[in-house]
Every structure is written in structure tokens, then in C-alpha cells.
Amino acid sequence: MTATDRPQSEPDRLRFNEERIRLLHKSRPQNRAVQVSGGLFVCMALFSLWHLDLQWGRLFADPSEPGLFRFLNQDIRPHVTRQPDWTWADLGTWLLTLLRDYGLRATWGTLLLATAAMGLAGFGGLLLAPLAARTLTVPDPYMGLQNGRRSLLSSAVRSLCLAMRALPEYVLGFLLLALLSGSTWPAVLALALHNAGILGRLFGDSLEDVPVTPMRGLAAGGARPSGLLLFGGAPQAFSRWLAYIFYRFETCVREATVLGMLGVISIGYYAKEMRSRQFYDELFVLVLLGALLVLLADALSGWLRSRLRQG
Amino acid sequence: MTQPPKATPRFKRRYALVLLAALGLLAAYGLNLHWKGLLPRGEGFVLWKRFFSAALSPAFNYESTSVPAGTPPFLLVVFRSVLRTLEFAVASMGLALVGGLILGVLSSHSFWDSALGQGRQGTKLRNRLRIFFRTIAALLRSVHELLWAILFLAAIGQTTSAGLLALTLPFTGILAKLFSEMLDEAANEPSAALEGLGCHPGVALLVGRLPIAWPDMAAYGFYRFECALRSSAVLGFFGFQTMGYHLELSYNSLHYREVWTLLYALLFTVWGLERWSGILRRSAVR
After folding, report:
1. What domains appear along chain A, each with residue ranges and CATH number?
2. Using CA atoms, how far apart are residues A160 and A174, in angstroms rounded to an integer?
3. Interchain contact A150–B (C-beta under 8 A)
4. Each residue of B64-116: pLDDT tens digit?
5. Residue B280 touches chain A, beta carbons under 8 Å
6. Residues 121-180 of B with CB under 8 A from A
7. B74-285: CATH architecture
8. I need a surface site. Which of B5, B44, B77, B85 has the fewest CB within 10 A?
9. Cβ pair B86:A174 closer than 8 A
10. ipTM of the shown complex
């Protein structure tokens, strides 16, 4: 269509414009797979909501009956404030006693759990990454055409990573609990295995994505895969690796708050205990402590990552 | 003008790895971890052998010989638990996507800076409202699914709605954070051009910004769906009828072949989801 085709009279021009809009609409980018998946997901969600047979009664129950209102009004209220003549000093003493008795220990234990697991996971990720990077495991890396070359080793390692991260940390920890003596290793190992699977894959991906020119230069100079990794791949991917480690640390802390339920002294451990004793006020304080720790880890990791981006 | 690259990076990277390793070792020391704890001892070794040899022969039927009459066949129970796990995951993700989109828009710069009235007046109020919604999202996501589950179990008892809420709330917070970041990072020009033409700022956000951020949002949403599936399986350890429930039962009765059937079913489901998202990613790139 050129400018000379443009009709002159008003109604013609309107019709012409409508036609063009229709054509534009028809030629918009469409994707069958995305549309089908979206529709399928919506259908599945509606079916699930119906089939789960949700009972909302207790959510809106009268405050005199067990339900959300009573829980918020009575159960999670610090028990010292349930007396008619309570003072803020009582509340402070209660909170301080709680923190001294187990609150601080629980928070510290959670942090230790996350850090130890992160150290192990980072180590595991570093071991897995070069093997998962297809650009390094093909014969004659960075020589000749790279596209479409497959590597059996990398596929196997990537499947291993998938299997490691497919199982939830809690399930892994639960299974390891009976297999290992003591209760700290199962939680640490569960968290470490899951994250090593994730980091192995992410580290490997960033090794594959490093700029190729230095790598080609090294390869042309006769560097072997180990040399390519140590002097080309690792230095170039290192910032990304650190960013991934910080990012995972955030998630690790969050996950560590509940892994304590498997028996490590941490927030989850005491949360489970307070639940079984029905001390819901103390349970609520523990949940808040956990949230605080997660938010702090979030802020720390965000700050470190922004520093890393600035160079 | 662009700044010339700095000669010395501000972040001393070379020490970072050493520092991280040292922190990890210190934490391990603080937890009294010893490598000997990794070795099975005495009876433990027999258990390992039993557990891992069961991996080769997953159960297709109950391992126990005395199953009460009328019990549904084992594979049907496994199938039902997979279905229930998927139901919790899909339903909570469906709600969290809607909630996360709304909360994400409400906690984004791009909404408050353009959508509500131009000019300087009310900047402070707008900023406060944005921070308010951001704080809600942060609080929702900083409490782990299982802690939410414990709270809701205590509050409204062992109902499916407790499980659904426990999954939905944290995922809403996580999605809201990511969605607002993606909206703010989307290219500015199309929506600015639309607004320059006199388009309502809200509409500009909807048709100028959202479609650019949309692929990233969908990809991230799908990744979260996988996480929701895992969390939903774990909900079973708290009495909901998902896979964790049957895992715990079989494991505690030392029926390791049943455990492996359930593990394989879980792995297969996660793998299936990963395939699905792989197909989506590839077709979206094309």
C-alpha cells in the first residue's frame, strides 16, 4: 500500500483505516504454544479450585468459635497481655525472656545452617559447572564451528543437576534423617544438595555464555580445556557466579527457617515445638523473627549484588 | 556521557571466594558438623543398602502383606496424591498470579509515577503508598510457606483452604516483587510515546509497558509454578493429602520400595513441568 492508494472521501478513508487496523491486528505476533498453555493453565486452576472442596467457614467464623478471628484476637496475643492489668514492662520482660531462652539461639542457628549449606553448595556448584558447560566438554573446544555440537558428559551432568534440584529440600532432609546419624547433617546436606543442583546448572550456563573471543585466542594458542576454564572461562564468569551465590543465599535463609523442623536448633525447630504445645503467641514471635532474618538476608544480598553490578 | 571504566574494581572479587569459604567453614564449625557424621555407622549401613537397593525395584503394590480389604490399590493412591499435589500447586499459582500482578503493579514505580495524576502534587503520598504495598509484598514473602501453613493450621484447622492460603500468600509476595521490578525495568519509550500522544497513563502502562515485560513475567511465573509444586508436595508432611503425606507414611513403616515409587512419581511430575516450560521458552524465542 502506498500513499497514492489512500482514498480521498471521508467514508472511504474510515473504511480504509478500519481495514488497516484489522490487518494489523491479524498480523500481531501470536504464539500457539503460549495460548494453548495459558488456556490449559486457567482450566486446570479452575478445576483445582473446585475439586479442592475449599471450606471457608472457619476463616470468617464468629470470634466465639475457633477460627481466624479468635486466633488473631486471643491465641497469638502474648499471654501476659491477656491479664486485665498488664503493663508494657510485662510485655518487654516476656519478649526478652523468650529471646534469651531460645529466640536468639534459634535465629543464630538458622543463619549458621544457611551459611554452611551455602558453602557446600557453592563448592558443589563449582565442581559441577565445568562439566555442565557444553562449550568446554565437546572435543576441541572453541575450535571451528560450535553450533549444534552435543556432549554426552554435559547432558549427563545436567540431568544429575536436574535430579538434585527436583526433590524439595524438606523431602531430602526427611529421607536423610534416618540414613544419617545425628540431626544436623540431614538438614545441611538437603539444603546443600538442592542448591548445588541449581548452582551447577546456573554456573554452567554462565560459563557457556562468556565472550568467545578470549576463549578462541586461548584455544588457538593450544590451551587445553583446563586452561580454557582457569584462564578464560572462570575469570569471565566469576562475577555472575558470585551474584548467583548471593541470590541463592537469600533463598537458603528462607528455606533454613523451616528445615529446623527436622531437628536442627533453629527457628523451625522451636516453631514446631511451640505448635505442639499450642503456645501460639510464642510461635508468632518466632515467625516474625524468621521474617526479619529473611528480610535482612534479602537486603544484604541485594546490596552485594548491586555493588557487584557497579564493578 | 559515559564514565570511563574504573581501573580497580570497587569490589575485591579475588577475596570473595576465600571469604565465602571461610564463612561456610565457620558456620559448619558452629553447627558442630564433622565429616565423620556423613559415614553410616553399624546398623546405618544396612539401612543404606536397603534404601538404595529399593531404588531399583519400586513398588507397584503395597509392600505390607496385611492390607485391609477395601483399600484402594497402591498405584491409584499414588496417582491421587500426584493429582492433589498438582491441584494445590495450580490453584495457589492461579490465585498468586492474579494477586501478584495487582500487588506488583501497585508496588511499582511505573504505576505511581505516571498513572495517577501528572505534576508534582502528591508525590510524597504516592511514594508512601508505593512503599506501603512493597512492604506488604515483603512481609508476605519473608514468611516461608510451611510457617504460613503452621499458622493457618492453628487458626482455621486442617482444611484445604488452610493449605491453599499457605501456598498462595508467600507466592503472591514473591511474584509481586519480581513483577514490579520487571515492569520498572521494561523499556520506557513506548509508554512515554503513548502518553505524549495524550493516552491515559493507566492505558499506557497496560499497552505500552506490560506487553514488553510480559514474556519475562510469564517465564518467571512458570518457574514459580515448579516451586509451588515442590512446596505443595511438602505440605503433605503437615497432614494434607499430597505426596509428602504418603512419603512419610511409607518411610516410617520402612516400606522403601513404596517410597521410591513416590519419589519417581514426584521426579516425573517435575520433569514434565520442566519439559512444558522448555517447549514454551523455545516457541517464545522463535
Report:
1. 89-310 (1.10.3720.10)
2. 20
3. no
4. 777 777 788 889 999 999 999 999 999 999 999 999 999 999 998 888 876 55
5. yes
6. 138-139, 142-147, 150-151, 153-157, 159-161, 164
7. Orthogonal Bundle (1.10)
8. B5
9. no
10. 0.86
